Amino acid sequence: MSTNTLTPAAPAPAKPTKPWEASISDRIKTAAIFLGSALFTVGLVAVTPLKGKLAYAIVFFIAFVVIDYIYNVVKGGRAAGADSLFRGFVTAAVCLAITPIVSILLTVWVRGHKGVHWTLFTKDMHSNAFQDPANQGGLLHAIIGTFLLVLFAMIISVPIGVLTAIYITEIKGRFTRPIQFLVQAMSGVPSIVAGLFILASIVYPLTKTLNGFEGSLALAILMIPTVARTSQEVLLLIPQDLREAGVALGGTQWRTVIMIVLPAARSGLITAMILGVARVAGETAPILLLAGGNNSVNWNMFHGPMGSLPNYIWQSFGTGTPDSVTRAWAGLLVLLAIVLILFGLARTLGNRKVGK
Amino acid sequence: METNTQPNTLSSIASKREVKTAGTQAMGVGLEARGIHAWFGQKHALANVSMDFWPGTVTALIGPSGCGKSTFLRTLNRMHEFIPGAAMAGEVLLNGEDIYAPGTDVTKIRLKVGMVFQKPNPFPSMTIAENVLAGLKLAQLKTANKDELLEECLERAGLWSEVKDRLNTHGGALSGGQQQRLCIARALAVRPQVLLMDEPCSALDPGSTLKIEETISHLSSSVTIVIVTHNMQQAARVSDYTAFFLSDGGPGQMIEAGSTNEIFARPKDQRTENYVTGRFG
Prior knowledge:
Chain A has 356 residues and is mainly alpha-helical. Chain A has helices at residues 24-47, 52-112, 140-171, 176-186, 191-207, 212-237, 240-248, 253-264, 266-281, 285-290, 309-319, 322-351.
C-alpha cells in the first residue's frame, strides 16, 4: 500500500474510542488474579490455624500483591512489576483509611435507623423517660438546642474568624506571625478546655447559672480557629491583581477589601463558615459543662439549661436499657446526618465558581 | 535575516506617525519624574530616571526584562509601595505637585493617574456595567448620569458595540481582549489625567492587540498615556515618545529617550541601536 497516494481514501466514519483504557482481556486477567488470590486465601485459611476476618484480609492482600507482581514481571519486566507492587500498597493504604469511616457510618445506620420515626422531629422528652419504648417522645428539644447553640456560636465566631483572616492576609500588620501561630495552636485546643475556660471565667464569677449562651461561647472558641484558617486560605487564593486594581482605581484598602476581595471570595467564606459549624455541631464536653441538659424545648438562650443532640445521646446511653440505647443510636444517626449534610453543602458551595 | 529587515520596518512604522507635541494647557501641565530611584529590599532596581510626559501624548517604555521599566511605571501612581520591602527616592510631579509629598492623599493621586495591568483583571463578582463603574463606588464619587458615563467609557475603550446587549452579565464570559478593554473602560470611568499601561497586550492574541492599540490611539488625544511594552513594533505603532531602559547587572537605567521616530531611526546610543535592531535582548 502506497502512503503517498494522491487520492485520499474515503474517510471512514469516525467512532470515538479510548485506546488507552484497559481492554476486555486485560480486565479478565485482573479479575482472574483477584479470584485466584481469593481462592488461595480461602484454601490457606482452611488448612492452617489462621482464623478470622483479619486473617482473610491479610492473606488475601499478600496473595494478591505477590501474584499480581509475578504476572507483571513475566509480562512487562521488573519495572512493570515494581509499578504493580506500589499500586498494591497504595490501594491497601486507601482501604485501611476508609475502613473505619465506612464502619462508623454502617454501624450508626444499622443500629440507628430502627429508632428513627417522625415523632422524633415533633416531640420532646418532657413527658417521657429515656427507658420508655423508642417510638415515644422525641428529640425536638435536642435539635432546637443544637441549632440555637450552633447559631449563636456562628454569630460570634464568623465575624471574628473572618476579620482575623483579613488581618493576616490583607493588613499584614506586625502581629501577623504571632496571630497566625496562635490561630494554628488554637485549632488544637481540646474542647473540654474551652468549656472549663468559660466555666471559670464567666459561670463561676459572673452568672453562677448554666444556660445555652455560655455553651455557645465555648463553641465559638472552638469555631474561630477553623473559620479563620479556612478563610485565610480562601483569601490567599484571590489574585493580588484584583487588590491592586481596586487600589489603582482610587479605593482605600478598606473599601477594596469590602467591595472586591470579600465578594470574590464569597463562596469560599461560606464554606469556611459551614466547616466551622460542622466542627462544633457534635461537640459534647463543653455543652455538658455549660448548657447542661433539658428534656423540654427551651427557646431562651439566656435562661435555663439547654438540651442538645450530644447531651441527648449521652443521657440515652447512660440510661442503659435496650430502648434507651436505641434512642441513642437514632440520635447519633440524626447528628451524623446533619454534619454530613453540612459538609456536602460546604463542598457544593465551595466548588461553585464565582460569578455564576 | 529578520534582524536586517527589522530596523527598516520599525523606523518606517515609527516615521509614519506625526510628531506630536504637548497638548493644551487645559489638560494640565503633565507628569514629570525627577531623579527616580527604586529599591526592593537591599536590591537597587532603578537608578536616577528623569522624564517628562507631555499631556495628550503616548510614551512607550521599552527594554529587556528586569530593566526596571515596570517598576518605574509603578512609581508614577504610587503602586510601587504596594510591594513589601519597596523603597524609592526622587520626585514625581503631577501638575507641578510632588505626589510623594507628606500629607498627599494617595487615593486622589491614583484617581488622577489610572492603571491598566498586564493580565486582564475584571472584578469577578461584578457584571460588566458594575465593573466599569466600580471606580466610582470604590472612591465614593458621585456622578450625574451613570448610564451616560457607562456608555461613554465603553465607547472610548472600543467595547460598547460588543457588550451593549449584555451589560448585566458577568465580565468573566468575555474574551481576554474584551476583558482588557473592559479594564481600560473601568480605568477611564474615574476620568484620570494619565493612564499607565503595564504590558497591556502581553497576554492577548494579535487581533485583540490591534484593537487595544486602536483604543490607545483614540484615547491619546484626551489622556496622557505611558505604556510599558516588550513588543517594539507596538512601541513604534502607538507611541509618540519612546524611552529605552537597560540594566547592566546593576540597577536599571534610562539609556535614551526621544521621539519614537528618532529612537527607531537614529538612536544616539549604541546600546539603544543594538536593542531596537534586534541584535540583543
